[in-house]
Design goal:
mainly alpha; 2 helices; single chain
Amino acid sequence: MKLNLFAAWTSFALVLFAVVCIAGFLVAAGSGEGGWAVIAGSLCVVALAAAMALYGGTVRHDHRVHHDTPHLF
């Protein structure tokens, strides 16, 4: 259960971080700061990929130990 809680809250935090990064990307792209837009966009993609990998890995682990459904929260 501790692994599920860690994965759930970490994935949630990464998704929130990705939302902030996409906002930074839009502001940077709109103001003509190409370098900052690339950095913010890259961080957004990395954060979303990490959140999906962490969540997916937890679901896979739950299936391997024969839990009915992944109980994340």
